[in-house]
Amino acid sequence: MQIRNVAIIAHVDHGKTTLIDGFLKQCKTFRENEAEMQADLIMDSFDQERERGITILAKNTAITYRDTKINIIDTPGHADFGGEVERTLNMAEGAILLIDAQEGPMPQTKFVLKKAFELGLKIIVVINKIDKPNAHIENTTRRTHDLFLELASHEDHLEFPVYYAIGRQGKAWSALPANFEE
Predict the structure, then answer these.
(1) What are the boundaries of each domain within the chain?
(2) 14 an active-site residue?
(3) Cα gap 4→68, rounded to integer Å
């Protein structure tokens, strides 16, 4: 069995923990009758995290996909915990950069992407919350490409897939769908 270590990185409230919780549920990490399958947030388990609605400490979990065990690292998105993000990125081989379609790339997005580039991580971009009324999908995608152009120090940094997602529903597409209900 192969093993991959992937960090989920983003600005605060762009949906990292929700995305990971969706992975856990879709991969049947828990049986249908277990409490975690009904929980809104599986990964944010500390009282202070639930109370504040943010991830404070990086946490890891694992899913199995085909013949690969994927260790997923849920990183904090708040700038106050940037040191925690830097420390955990050292353990990853790649990263999923999650960007809210309403807000687009934010200051912490730039910070985490720069750190990921410095460590030579392969990046997968996920534009999240595309179903929201104020989503600016095309603008967010363009601004994301611009950010990559600004921060890339190597040609390889400019080769990355982009996916479009509705994290809360556990849906994602490799091309922007005409109808989100598909």
Answers:
(1) 2-173
(2) no
(3) 7
State the catalytic residue, choosing from 25, 29, 61, 78. 78
pLDDT digits (tens, 9 = 90+) for 110-129: 989 999 999 999 999 999 99
Is 78 designated active site? yes
Q: Does the annotation mark 13 as catalytic?
A: yes
For residue 172, the SS3 value is: strand
Look at the pTM and tell me if it is higher than 0.85. Answer: no
Query: Which one is the CATH code of 2-173: 3.40.50.2300, 3.10.580.10, 3.40.50.300, 3.30.360.10?
Result: 3.40.50.300
Query: pLDDT for 94-109, tens place per residue?
Result: 999 999 999 999 998 9
Non-local CB neighbours of 118 within 8 Å, separated by 6+ positions? none
Catalytic residue (one of 11, 16, 59, 157)? 16
